[in-house]
Design brief:
Order of helices and strands: HHEHEHHEEEEHHH
Shape: elongated
Radius of gyration: 20 Å
Strand order of the largest sheet: 1-6-5-4
Helix content: 40-55%
Strand content: 5-15%
Number of helices: 8
Amino acid sequence: SAFIAQALNTIGVRVANRIAVGDDQDAIQNALDTAASQNNIVILTGGLGPTADDITKPLLNRYFKGNMVVHQPTLDHITNIFVNIHKRPMIERNRKQAEVPDTCEVLFNETGTAPGMLFKRDGVYFFSLPGVPHEMRWLMDHHVIPTIKANFDTPSISHRTLLTAGIGESFLAELIQDFENALP
């Protein structure tokens, strides 16, 4: 969530809240309902893998009233990973990772086996990303941020970093108080 918040901040999207829930269908659905009622952008991570505790994808399928379909480019990608790169047979669990709800836009994941997904409802964009950190980061950089920039008015923000040493935080806060108060 820290990486996601930082990536959104760089394009002027302020994170209103972060919600952490376990692998519980009711908790996930309640979190989706709450987030959608308060925001235009909702980003989920995790629960897209091949194990029994990965319940997010089937839950999103029901939540957005879809039907599971095989996304052929993802299936081809997964097949290549297992057969040509890892030299292992591809089992049904791996094949199922290429299944996505037909109500989403697939966010192709070049760095792993779980595709990201984008759902849209009532002006709210729901991004579902894998929980594997390097896969989530790649999808944020290559799909989520460009999609947000293309579909939402984001302000121009200038970021500056000032490194300090030898001064305590409270003393530094006193020195920059006027500057901080002038920030929007």
